[in-house]
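Page 47, continued from p. 46.
Same chain as before, 472 aa.
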Amino acid sequence: MAKNLTVGSPLRLIVVFTLPLLIGNLFQQVYAITDTIVVGRMISVEALAAVGASGSLQFLLFGFAMGASAGLAIPVSRAYGAGDTAGMRKAVTTGAWISLAIAVAITLIGVFGSSFLLRLLGTPEELMAQSTEFLAVFFAGSVATVGYNYLTSVIRALGDSRTPLLFLILACVLNVILVILFVGPAQMGVGGAALATVLAQLVSALMCLLLIWRRMPLLHVGRSDWRIDFARIRESSNLGLTLGFQMSIIAVGAALLQYGVNSLGTDAVAAFTAALRVDQVAVVPLASVGMAMTTYVAQNAGARQPERILRGVRQTTFLAIGLALLLGLAIFFGGTAMVRVFVGDGSAAVVTMAHNYLVFNAALYWALALLFMIRNVLQGLGSTLAPTMSGIAELIARAIIGLLVIEHVGFIGAIIAAPAAWFAALIPLLGAWFFHRRRLVRDAQQQDAARDVVEDEPVALQPCTAEHCPAT
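Result:
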């Protein structure tokens, strides 16, 4: 249920809020991992590469939707932190209208433009048919996926990260069952894997609606709440579409990098796909901490508590860096075994390339931890410029490597691309954080000074009356 993050120990609140996010994000990765394992082992390595070649387009469109959902939930967090229930409900319906528009746009672009976009990315011709089939089915279910992301973002905006987790686990189990049935006995190929994921996310979205109806009266909106308020549309669009745009910028960079990898052949695409799947699971704890910080900061910004924001950021940064070091060690010793889960023992070249990718990236997870932390803190504060500039920096770094470097150095370019993008993205974020940090420190000092003045004021004496004065 709803959880107020403006009172209590910041680190404890953030950790408790993060744990369900962490488990949920891990189960989200199970969607992609299950598809990859089943497709790679039950169909072929070529089918695995076909799903991987479509990954950048999935990230491009659904990355936009996920970023937009996070942005649309920020006004909800602020209103909840400020105790403005009416404003919170209007923010929820405003975000719902925008999410519906996004889902329709993604469906049209994804279903009718997948083949063109795949060719634009230089997808090998032998992978085109299966990649197009996978994307057509996947994007046809955009309403379910976008709806699920928005509803979970709203529920988390109220500080509840636990109950959506239960529904996600059930949906994940459903996805595993369906993908095995569709790809195995039903012989539906890569399209069956995509359909299993869409149906599982539809179940998750329906469960979120059931939760809101049965257990979260704060989110029970009335007919008047659905009236379009253009001022709120502009405010929510500024945050939602800007954060979505940031994710799309990052996704475009990933697509350009995918273009470079595609030019290296099927083995390189399969290695990149398998390594990326392992890498995505490994960084889930870091991403989860970042997601928690957006809600924590937004609620405390709404409650005007700058000192709590500073304390929470300071404590959680140390936690995130420590997690990054532990995850790096885990990947160093166990990453190769995880790669073999996807491709089996018969693809030595694929395993070697994926191993090299993972070891190099894992050694620099601490930089990614800082990136997740600072970017989400700034988003919670309502800052849009610096995260956008950060996304552009990532785009430039990945584009240079994908279009220029890989051609000359081969798969080594794919190995160094992500860390190069992380460091490029940190430059504008660090500058913006130092600026906002000074402002938060100043606001905290002004609040302390105001409290001191109030405490030092003499108590006004009440007039003496015969009834209340002591006898003289």
